[in-house]
Write a structure and sequence with these properties.
By secondary structure, this protein is an all-alpha fold. The protein is built from 21 helices and no strands. 77% of the residues lie in helices and 0% in strands.
């Protein structure tokens, strides 16, 4: 079968999956399975072979990511339920002061969104942001919304252990410690520069924000948001201290980075075997590190009777339910990737890339951005996009920067088919136009800024 026909079937397979997700509201994992079937069978892989290839890809992805993603979701749920997010927010507000309160909110979002899902972090922090906006004499509501979107969004997109960046790094064969380090190195300046641009050139422009058209006051929605926030907040007398709040988040990152740095310093012996002690290598595995963080979160929950054993168990059970969907989507990304590799899409795309002479970073960014615009989920966009790119082999650019380009592209074009758009809009009391002026715009700015940073980095690191 000719190369153009295989590419045509790839496009058809992706379109089929997107139509099932968008038009028929089908679960993304099922839709991706059907898309993989279409691609494999139509490309001549064979019916039974296509199914076995999907299963093999799914299984290998679960082997490498299943435990760490599951522990990560548990960790995030426990940190949210015990009130650690509130403690971090209160502490940063004291450091930044009123003039920079929006940066305090954004920084809080940046920290807590490393293990906590975007929507959970937003639900918890938005009531505090609204209160600050009401009391502030220098900042208005979109300053705080923009800060939260910037902080929560960039960490959720670039820094493991959230499932998207963890899976993306794995697909490109990048050690998780490297993904974390580079994700922070790119994500932090992107967050700060994007907030400055948003505040200076958009909110600072007269007439950009109009409360009459950009904000709405629906008592029912506000009551629902307040009820959701109350479920996820704790009595202040029972809040953990700053050290206890940050510990479960920081511990996995520190353990992984210790091993990564140790490996880099001591290297391998003459036979290629690592010289790093076995114990150090163990604690730096993503599975062990995430388990350690989860246990630390449990200890924080149980200390000083902040939560009962039954409440901790309930939190873990909620997390397990949420993890199931995430793992299915992640695993099916691996299944689709196995089919893409088997039918030779990678070699075809690599040849096209060499012919058009487009920078690799921009090529990867565009794939992820188009997928994001089409179907709304950033995780699906980056996993699917990087799955396609991973099948292309060595592209002459550092794999970690290719992964970062996929993450960056998944921030572009966040609009009404993105569930986080509606979480942000409705909980904040905004109109759809207000949502575009906050969530969509801030994500777009961050996508462009991070693309520029990654492109510059690719000139020096190959």
């Amino acid at each position: 079968m000719g190369d153009p026909i295989i590419l045509l079937w790839l496009v058809i397979a992706i379109v089929v999956a997107l139509v099932l997700i968008i038009r028929f509201k089908m679960n993304a994992a099922i839709a991706m399975f059907i898309g993989a079937l279409v691609l494999g069978i139509a490309s001549g892989l064979g019916m039974a072979t296509t199914v076995s290839t999907i299963s093999s890809g799914f299984g290998s992805t679960m082997t490498s990511l299943g435990l760490s993603v599951g522990f990560g979701v548990m960790l995030g749920q426990l940190v949210a339920d015990v009130g650690a997010v509130q403690t971090i927010a209160n502490g940063l507000l004291k450091v930044f002061g009123e003039k920079k309160a929006d940066y305090a909110m954004g920084s809080t979002g940046f920290i807590v969104s490393i293990p906590v899902f975007y929507d959970v972090g937003y639900v918890i922090l938005m009531p505090l942001a609204k209160a600050l906006a009401k009391d502030s004499t220098q900042k208005i509501l979109p300053h705080f919304i923009g800060g939260l979107v910037a902080g929560l969004g960039i960490a959720h997109t670039f820094i493991p252990p959230t499932p998207g960046p963890m899976t993306g790094g794995e697909l490109m064969g990048v050690p998780i410690g490297v993904t974390i380090a580079v994700g922070i190195a790119i994500g932090l300046p992107t967050f700060l520069i994007s907030m400055f641009i948003y505040n200076k050139f958009f909110l600072g422009r007269k007439g950009f924000w109009n409360p009459e058209t950009d904000e709405e006051h629906d008592p029912a929605l506000e009551a629902e948001a307040a009820a959701r926030a109350k479920e996820l907040t704790r009595d202040e007398s029972k809040l953990p201290g700053m050290f206890a709040s940050v510990l479960p988040i920081a511990l996995p990152i520190v353990l992984i980075l210790i091993t990564t740095v140790w490996d880099a310093i001591v290297g391998d012996d003459v036979n290629g075997n690592p010289l790093t002690p076995d114990f150090i290598r163990m604690i730096g595995t993503k599975e062990f590190a995430m388990m350690a963080g989860t246990i630390a979160a449990m200890v924080v929950c149980l200390m000083k009777h902040r939560m009962t054993l039954k409440q901790v168990e309930k939190s873990v059970n909620v997390a397990v339910g949420a993890a199931g969907t995430v793992l299915l989507i992640t695993g099916m990304g691996g299944g689709l990737g196995a089919v893409i590799t088997a039918v030779g899409v990678g070699d075809i795309l690599k040849g096209i890339l060499e012919t058009v002479n487009m920078p690799v970073i921009l090529f990867v960014w565009l794939i992820a951005a188009l997928l994001k615009i089409a179907q709304g989920s950033g995780t699906v966009a980056m996993v699917t996009g990087l799955t396609i790119v991973a099948s292309m082999g060595d592209l002459g650019v550092s794999p970690v920067l290719i992964a970062m380009a996929g993450f960056s592209g998944s921030l572009c074009g966040a609009h009404v088919n993105d569930s986080a758009f509606w979480v942000t809009t409705k909980i904040s009391g905004l109109t759809t136009v207000g949502g575009f002026k906050t969530y969509t715009l801030v994500c777009f700015i961050q996508s462009i800024i991070s693309l520029i940073i990654i492109s510059v980095a690719s000139l020096f690191f190959h």
